[in-house]
Amino acid sequence: MQITVNVNGTDYAREVEARLLLIHFLRDDLGLTGSHWGCDTSNCGACVVWLDETPVKSCTVLAAMADGRRVRTVEDLAMKGAGEGGMGRRAGGGTLDPVQQGFSECHGLQCGFCTPGMMLTARWLLDHNPDPTPDEIREALSGQICRCTGYENIVRSVLWASKHEASRREADR
Amino acid sequence: MKGKGELGRGAYGPVRRKEDARFIRGLGTFTDDIQLPGMLHGAILRSPLAHARIVSVDASAAEAHPRVKAVITGPMLERRGLAWMPTLSQDVQAVLATDKVRFQGQEVAFVVAEDRYSARDALELINVEYEPLPAVVDATTALDPGAPVIRDDRAGQPDNHIFDWEAGDRAATDAAFAAADVVVAQDMLYPRSHPAPLETCGAVADYDQVSGQLTIWTTSQAPHAHRTLYALVVGIPEHKIRIISPDIGGGFGNKVPIYPGYLCAVVGSMVTGSPVKWVEDRSENLMSTSFARDYHMHGEIAAAADGTILALRASVLADHGAFNGSAQPSKFPAGFFHIFTGSYDLRAAHCAVTGVYTNKAPGGVAYSCSFRITEAVYLVERMVDILAAELGMDPAELRMKNLLRPEQFPYTCPTGWEYDSGDYPRALQVAMDIADYPALRREQAEKRARGEHMGIGISFFTEGVGAGPRDQMDILGLGMADGADLRVHPTGTAVLSVSCQTQGQGHETTFAQIVAQELGLSPDDVEVVHGDTDRTPFGLGTYGSRSTPVSGAAAAVVARKVRERARIVAAAMLEVAPGDLEWAGRWQVRGDPEKARGIAEIAMAAHGALELPAGVEGHLDAETVYNPPSLTHPFGAYICVTDVDPGTGQVQIRRFIAVDDCGVRINPMIVEGQVHGGLADGVGMALMQVIAFDSSGNCLGGSFMDYLLPTTMECPSWELGATVTPSPHHPIGAKGVGESATVGSPPAIVNSVLDALRPFGVRHADMPLTPANVWSAIQGRPLRTDLAIP
């Protein structure tokens, strides 16, 4: 079947099998390998992307269900500066999102496999709750698994991003 | 990162990781991210039965599938001599089954197709006729007369027995027990668990039929050992094999062995002439690869009436599954379990371990277990707590009374391990201070009076990590020593190549810090190369917390070699004798520090026109092989506070205090991260995780819906502390830490829950302490957690 999906601001028209999972569409068809596959059963969240404005586990979403909709992946988290960015796999330019900075500042990642999904959920949380408590961060991330960090530094990373954004808002005022 | 201006004296510290830049952008390269032109996809047909004779395999319909390129079966591999492969424990394992299947999920056939979905489709077109056989599921019955013989492929194997092994002094232990005032005994199970890294195992094999070159991108914690194994198994000369272990999404021991799927990908590439990718799904990962633990243990502890512990005894039945795939040094079939005397000043100890086959997935590999020290620490820490209850003593007081004292180090334990260094009472005291232990006991007493159930659990662990030395420890005859090469470029930046492989531990940062510290450079100026056999020296890899004890030592030693060469060059530059120079982050003239040369200046001179003195051929590059003189022995004291709801059996971990001593900390931020992850592992093992089986051998833990991993909701905010007791024999005084918390945390949690249950008279219940298990224990019927609840 023919689908058109807007991924990270670019429309992709592709012929796909009806059964194709969104995670495989992103990784194998579009080459956006930042989103990972971890469990098949919606338990681990390594595959979290945004469908329109909502985080979803893309291992249990059909690519066909994204037809006509917008998908946002980790490759889109960094804000693109002038002349930077682009959609290629190696598009590493641009200013990092505070969530990305927070994960690096607070050692919120080790192997890096769960990190893209964690960051996308964290970004969604901060967009809806700019000043979350540690418990609210834990609840938001409770559907995702990290095997390396024991979550402590992930919580600190999101708090770092929250504080960083608050001080930036203060500076802009 | 620290700035370029800061010299080596400050290279240690919590610097941010170099690795993060790619991972936070989604630009890591994991095995499943590898895409090669013309690449095909493999999928494995697995046995639905735990034990059955194969009557026939008909792959004709699958072969006729329009997108299928090849179907490989056991008989096809047998004709090439590839149907069986050696395990890491002198056994063999079926690559694809020929005669029987011996566990549910065993590999039966391999399909190579143009895309992943078609490969999966074709599996359903393969028709296998099985003749079911009775399965051996319960290890405690594996040696019964008349039990079905699983390994009838092995000549002269009349039963399911693998090995008997013992350590310690039986007679001295018997004598100590006979003289004891108090003896307590307890059966306990460390149930089968699985490391379950978030990235499953996989390989992309690319065989060049013209050059005979085989390149394998794969999830390997030990690329060099894998290269040798592939050479021995497949028969391709080792110099024609290149193993590339790209970014790895967690290992925890799961990615030490070679799995049948890897070999199938290799054969698939040889047969089709195209690259073949095989990546297992989550069920395949949990059901067929490297389980851990599965130790049925009987412990006995003897003490004097005043609480002085005299002796320890253990007998263990070890369930190794259908093929003995344990990954541990050859001389140690039960790993380092005989370090089970733990952290205490005992007179005598004896342990005996019997290994058996069952119709379960093969292995006994690992799960951050430091070669079975996990099981050993659990046994002794449970026994000490049970003894404390028997004596009516506070478990902290009993431990403090019996812990080894600092002046006893180096200490040789009753089973022969020499502990390098430690100050155990201090670590326990620091943990008790952080916890405010007396206040916790007061709170507990008040709550008990109100009918609330709060538990306080303690564990104290001693690890032994960093295997070899090579004459004592080998895997398949490969000595456990690791190489390092260091090249210093003319402008003073450096590239370190090491044989170990990071799976998230941050080697690219930590090892750069080690070299920077030794050479007076910034960590930013040191690049670490790893995970590619064509670009790194030989070594046994990353597991058993051996990267920092072995490869970290190699990095320091090779940097010191470079430094000594630089000294000769610097002396020539300064027109003094090398002996007149002293190192202070640069070579300077003793008594005249203004006359000095840094590594960058020296490196340029060593590559330039300067006439080099004797002893330096040119350049500064060096290489080394580090053969560790002994293990390093990190240790720690953990305290866990739980609240238990007796109505539901629900356990909530309220606080967890972890004080770790891993010697010198190169990057404390990374060390703390390692501890955090291990503590979460402990929560999973103690409360949630088990790979159980029903009576037919069906695996009941084959997905993340059944095999439960801890989330943000089960893990508390960890409270860490540290003491630093350097290792006297490690070049920079460091010890390993990657597995410490996984080893130390389960007994603290279990001790805490059982402390909470004391008013109910519950002495012991096995992991995992799920709500159902806790509730049953309160009713006086703790569950047999490794078997299906009837």
Structural features, described:
The complex is a heterodimer of chains A (173) and B (790). Chain A is an alpha+beta fold. Chain A is built from 5 helices and 5 strands. A 5-stranded mixed beta sheet of chain A has the order 2-1-5-3-4, covered by helices on one side. In chain A, a hairpin with a 2-residue loop joins strand 3 and strand 4. In chain B, the strands form 9 sheets. Chain B has a 7-stranded mixed beta sheet. A 5-stranded mixed beta sheet of chain B has the order 9-17-16-15-10, with helices on both faces. A 4-stranded mixed beta sheet of chain B has the order 20-30-31-32, with helices on both faces. The N and C termini of chain B lie far apart (57 Å). In chain B, helix 16 crosses helix 17. Chain B is α+β, with helices and mostly antiparallel strands. Chain B is built from 18 helices and 32 strands. At the A-B interface, helix 1, helix 2, helix 3, helix 4 and helix 5 of A face helix 1 and helix 16 of B.
CA gyration radius of chain B, whole angstroms: 27 Å
Largest interface: A-B, 62 and 57 residues
| Number of continuous helical runs of chain B | 18
Helix amount of chain B? 25-40%
The mean pLDDT of chain A is 93
How large is the count of helical segments of chain A? 5
Low-pLDDT runs of chain B: 1-8
Beta strand % of chain B: 15-25%
**DSSP strand tally of chain A:** 5
End-to-end gap of chain A = 50 Å
- The helical percent of chain A reads 25-40%
Oligomeric state: heterodimer
Number of strands of chain B: 32
Head-to-tail CA distance between termini of chain B: 57 Å
Largest sheet of chain A: 5 strands, mixed
Shape of chain B: globular
Rg of chain A, Å, rounded: 16 Å
Shape of chain A: globular
